[in-house]
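Revision sheet: structure tokens.
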Amino acid sequence: MDYVIKNGVLLKYNGNASSVLIPNGVTEIGKAAFESCKSIRSIEIPVGVTAIGDCAFRDSISLKNITIPESVTIIGNLSFQRCTSLKCVDMTDSVTTIGSYAFNECISLFNLAIPKNIVKIGNGAFKGRSGLVSVSIPEGVKKIDSAVFSNCSSLSSVVLPNNLREIEDFVFCGCSSLSSISIPFGVKSIGKKSFADCTSLQAINIPSTITWVGENAFYNSGYYNNKENWENDALYIDNYLVSAKACISGHFSIQEGTTFIATDILRGSKITDLIIPKSLTTIGYRCFYGCKELISVTILGTVMTIKGKAFANCTSLKNINMLDNVVDISDDAFDDTAFYENQNNWENGCLYISNHLIKAKKYSDNLEKIFVKTGTISIARYAFAYCDFLEHITIPSSVTTIHENAFARCKSLKKVTIKTGVKKILSEAFRDCVSLVNIDVPKSVTTLGKDVFEGCLSLKKITISYGFANHMDFIFENLVSHFNTIDIDWIFDESLNYFDEVAYNDEKTKLVKCPPSKSGVFIVPEGVKAICASAFNKCIYLTKIVLPQSLTLIESGAFSGCKGLKEVNIPDNIKEIPEYAFQGCTSLKDIIIPEKTSVIWKYAFQNCASLTTVKLSNEITSIDCAAFQGCTALTNINIPNSVYEIYGYAFSNCTRLNHIDIPDSVTKLGSHIFDGCSHLVSVRLPDELETLPAVMFKACKHLKEVCFPKHITKIDEYAFQDCSGLTNIILPSDLEEIESCAFSGCNKIKKLYFQIN
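Predicted:
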């Protein structure tokens, strides 16, 4: 048999024909299906094939022509690698993804139009295509992965898309015929050696949006090798210092007008004193690392950021002169310098540079209580991280910014006093401060980063401005389960309007925040169109909420933690039930999802322990992760035929759920869906289901019998773990694979059958 085909996938071609016509009905060319088929010169792929798998035609050295039909959207990794005779590939615009090294070393492929709907081109996809002359990258590509066009020695013309944001490492390295490049406005980073060894490259345009230039990005390019482009042994492109020669020594002044310095640019040089011009805004990673003869640095004007290890290991550096413009200094920027080692520069265990606190001693038992020096304007990222003995920190009003992870993993930190004046507390600033119980966020704070209090498992109370009410799910994203146990004192926000203590926007179209003291029945006024994120969070005394028909939007966590809420109506115009919407509403008994609602997002009804009745609309298409997890009173739920995907943990730990019918419309099932449903007796699975997900029925100890769909080919790991009530198992005839421990702990199984077609 020339073709091995299973469930529409062409697994292997065993023939030796020079011209191949793939049979109709094939929907996918599987992994390595034609790998090393050295006889094939041409191949015809029928309409209906949607994907060409990894290594599908790799090393088919005689293959010259291939037409890819419009049904194909994915070309897998290494799919045509080393097809050295391949001259013509006809691709339609339906292709969206070209995998890594897909056409690597296709040395005879001179012309290939990249489909206009491409959004992803994998690493090295066209690497080593010596015949490629020109390329125009479609607008859908925002990032060019590493080495995509490296060593395309004939490539002379490149058009980059306006939506491009990132050029990774080695992308055009070795493109020796490339003479010019215009990098579009909006690109933020150019990776290391991305244009290295482009020996003909003379004309280069770098936009002002660039914030990162990697090591040796333009090394040995035509521009690099032109002596006229060098000034005082330094190479500039527009306003960027991109390279410098190792011979630089003594006094060195960076050219005025320079706005950015490339990574590692003067690393290990023999300069003794350095002047940073007023024009520069950022000193990049490791720029001056290991300049052991450097004694003095003067930073003028507008420099705002000094990144990690910028001057680290400059062992002679003792004089650092800079203005207050700098707002962000990495804690390791000056590690292992003479300035760092000089104990006179430390005050109460803290290292200050100018008005910045950049470092604290990690393991000193004398640092239990610290008052940050008045006049300090910033606390660097990781400045106090892992200070095991720190118990109390007082931050003065002069500080404007507490940077990322500033106090991360201070396991003894119990009290934080933040004075009014602080404006920014950035991401994960107090991450894993496991002893922190209370914290007051002053009204002056306008920015709270993501997961500021992640891992603060002892946190019981937080005082915070109403202005953050809409962002609590973002601030506490990875502390969701614990968040519902935290008491929140809201600070009055003058930018909002208050009616009967409830905060609205100026137009009274958005309900921003209801105070936790509200009790009994609350009627939301007609005209309100949106309930903002966390608006009713922790309103534990409310028993009923009446929502108006004008309502069109409920934001995430709007009613989370309303433990006393027994009744709420969802208006007809609500299209989505957002994440965490009713999470922890432990008294809520019934819910009706209106007909226009199409999605129930993650954790929407998680831990609604009294919920007995749920009526889903006939427009529901998706039930997201853990949507009904922990609804321990739920005995039954009717899933309509409109649903096509149910994500992991959707009904896990619904301990009273006894039966569920999953309609045939469902094509996607996640893992752990019924994990812990201890009273589940029977379940109907979709007829076309091919894989039974992992841990799907774990600990369903009352499950006695399972009717498998006939097309099941795989049972994933731990699918029926600890289903101690299972006695008989009838497996479908198409079953190919049972993963490890799929029936672990099913100690009452007596008979195991295979169906026979």
